[in-house]
Amino acid sequence: MKTLLLTLMLSLVLGFAAAQERVNVRIKQDYKLINGSGGVFTLKKSPFKFVFHVKGTDGFLIAFTQQDDIYRSAIGEADLEVMWFANTGMAEGLFNSEKSVTISDEAPSYWYFTGITEHRFDPHPQGTAQEWMAERSVDAFYLTEFSDTYLIKDMVRPLYFIIYSPTYDEDYNLIDKQILYHGQLQWK
Fold first, then answer.
1. Other CB atoms closer than 10 Å to residue 79's CB: what's the count?
2. Do residues 141 and 149 touch, judged by C-beta distance below 8 A?
3. Which residues, listed in sequence order, are joined to residue 164 by a DSSP beta bridge?
């Protein structure tokens, strides 16, 4: 029994590690790369860039919240309904011209790279649809709850994010999801 339990736990850990390998996230601020310690990035209240290295997929859903309980439920540490998983992704503008991120407790955003002329990142990403690197500049956050945009300097609460790959049935009902990465932005 102990061997079976140990094997199952090892499989889960390896599966999670493989998912994290598919989407590697770092942050660049003040021309320095910041690696998240345990997925937690501590940032100044100034503009920054998400830096993505993605393998094996041309896109993902990314959801942002300021609600710890929604985040913990999404990663399986709590048991609340997560509306992101019930809704498909919202498309944001091409080439990230607004330099913002949408924070919504109800629907994720769909970020993808299918080529140099079709993506949701800053200009000049590199790679192919199977392996690519891209940056996404963030100067502000659009909070759907208030229908308003806030500058980074005005942020007080931590920001949580989940990157996942959904599987839908023919009626676009979510039947499965794979968490590719999750993390937190803390402000200095």
1. 8
2. yes
3. 61, 179
pLDDT digits (tens, 9 = 90+) for 97-152: 889 999 999 989 988 888 777 788 998 899 988 899 999 999 999 999 889 999 99
**C-alpha–C-alpha distance, residues 110 and 62, integer Å:** 6
Q: What is the DSSP letter of 184?
A: E
> Cα separation of 62 and 138, whole Å?
14
Q: What is the pLDDT of residues 68-81, one digit of tens each?
A: 999 999 998 877 77
For 42, counting Cβ atoms within 10 Å of its Cβ (0-12 exposed, 13-18 middle, 19+ buried), the class is middle
Mean pLDDT of 31-57: 93
Q: How far apart are CA 89 and CA 96, in angstroms?
A: 16
Q: Could you tell me the two tokens for 92?
A: 């944001």
